[in-house]
Design a protein that fits this description.
Elements: E1 11-16, H1 26-34, H2 39-47, H3 53-62, H4 68-75, H5 84-93, E2 97-102, H6 107-113, E3 119-122, E4 124-126, E5 131-133, H7 151-159, E6 163-168, H8 174-177, E7 182-185, H9 187-196, E8 201-202, H10 206-213
Parallel strand pairs: 1-2, 1-6, 2-3, 6-7, 7-8
Antiparallel strand pairs: 4-5
This protein binds magnesium ion (MG) and zinc ion.
Magnesium ion binds next to loops.
Length: 218
Amino acid sequence: MPTLDLDLAETSVFFDFDGTLSTVDIGKHLLERLGPPEWRDIERRFVRGEISSRECVLDHWDMLPHDEALLRDVAREVPLDDGFGPLLHALRRARAEVTVVSDGFGFYVYELCAPFGVKVLTNEPDFTTGRLEFPHGDRCCACSSCGTCKQAPVKDARSRGRTTVLVGDGTSDAKAALLCDVVFAKAELGEWCRRSGVPFIQFESLADVADALVGARL
Ligand SMILES: [Mg+2]
Ligand SMILES: [Zn+2]
């Protein structure tokens, strides 16, 4: 993949977590392992645009046992893409800003990103009440229906004059993809970009993203 000509010191890179940094979507993995098969009906309604990402993640959360130890154990069955560490290192060396944005169950995103010390915006279950909380929702956003608003931090970066890059794979990345200067997409997000006429760079793993973003600087 040819290297993009970006000034990374002026660039903010937003990574989706599930299926982008993790090799498999951990939310779906939890639902597959611990939830009823009806979780797929909810997912289909979300992909078709019939329900919002917040409704989707809330309905899915209610389909899971709210047993923290069990959820964490099952989440740990999924490895991260081993290209993340080297890519993050190269981006930091080039003074790019890096943020992980995730509109899932949140708890495993904090846990798995902690060793990297990277900024995370996601939802957060309160395991004592069993409620899923939305500390990064944005009532002013155009979507008004996200759990974690992925558009809000992109708008913030743009208003600071930064070039914005999104790396994602899912329907919850679509609204941020509309705003970003460069979009790396695969799976559902790639299909959505194609249908919607949003230019994107197809990727399979983070090694492809590293090739295009940092190239020989890795
Ligand atoms: Mg994803
Ligand atoms: Zn939003």
